[in-house]
Amino acid sequence: MADTLVDVATVAKRLADPDWLLIDCRASLGDALQGRRDWAQAHIPGALHADLETDLSGPKSMATGRHPLPSHEAWAATLSGWGIRPGTQVVAYDGGGGQFAARLWWMLHWAGHANAAVLDGGLAAWQAAGLSLDTSISPRLSTRFEPAWHDHWLVSTSALQELLEAGYLLIDARAPERFSGRQEPVDPVAGHVPGAVNHFCNANLDPQGKFLPPGELRRRWSATLGGSDVGKLVSMCGSGVTACHNLLAIAHAGLPRGRLYAGSWSEWIRDPARAVATDPPR
């Protein structure tokens, strides 16, 4: 069973295994249909497609962030439609570093499916290995997925301040310029939640877009944590997507699992009364 990362060579040997399922998570924040177009044009043989907006997110409202989680019922129905059984090894991938694939990885574990991993290096590593792509669609027989929810891994906006006062550490996965408030290309308000610490998700990767070895991840995360208990970590980002990349890195490093603030920055700023910090302060 692979529950964090799996390499290209291992996946290539399992393409014909009915107990292995690849899911293409490519997406674009600027074009909601780009990921599906990319998948239709070419994908790893047998891979299904997970749409960030319709499969990996629920309906947005004036109170939610840009990518709220789907309901229990909707997510279980999606997993059933993909034909996932208890013994199915799911491998999520995207174009490279796993920033979108990690969202699916986290959501599968949230629903109690531990046989879920991310293809290290994604489609870029697959192609670099000279492996073929496909355009055919391979439907799977639906199942009845029986979830075992881990809702204690989730943090709501209403609970976040209470956790921070109790000593939890909020880690923001966005790029440093967004965290500081110097740039904000996506959301209408720039800055970060007061008290948060920045750990850019790309710092989990090597120059080839693969995850760093567990020892190096532990070293980097030790510096970010600054002596805080990783078990009291809450991960966030712009909308709850790349926050999962940090949680995947922590798991791959062999550290205790943290929690996810799924609403993240785009939900935090829905209420103008919530405090916003910038570096330097404005």
Form type: globular
Q: Largest sheet, order of strands side by side?
A: 1-5-4-2-3
Q: Helical proportion?
A: 25-40%
Low-confidence stretches: none
Largest sheet: 5 strands, parallel
> How many domains is the backbone divided into?
2
Strand content: 5-15%
CATH architecture annotation of the largest domain: 3-Layer(aba) Sandwich
How many DSSP E strands?
A: 10
- Overall structural class, as computed from helix and strand content, comes to alpha/beta
**CATH C-level of the largest domain:** Alpha Beta
The named CATH superfamily of the largest domain: Rhodanese-like domain
Chain-averaged pLDDT: 96
- Output the radius of gyration: 18 Å
Q: What is the terminal separation in angstroms? A: 49 Å
Layout: helices, strands, pairs:
Elements (H helix, E strand, L loop, with lengths): L4 E2 L1 H6 L6 E5 L9 H8 L6 E2 L22 H10 L7 E5 L7 H10 L5 E4 L2 H7 L25 E2 L1 H9 L3 E4 L3 H5 L16 E2 L15 H12 L7 E4 L6 H10 L6 E3 L2 H5 L14
Parallel strand pairs: 1-5, 2-3, 2-4, 4-5, 6-10, 7-8, 7-9, 9-10
Helix pairs in contact: 4-9
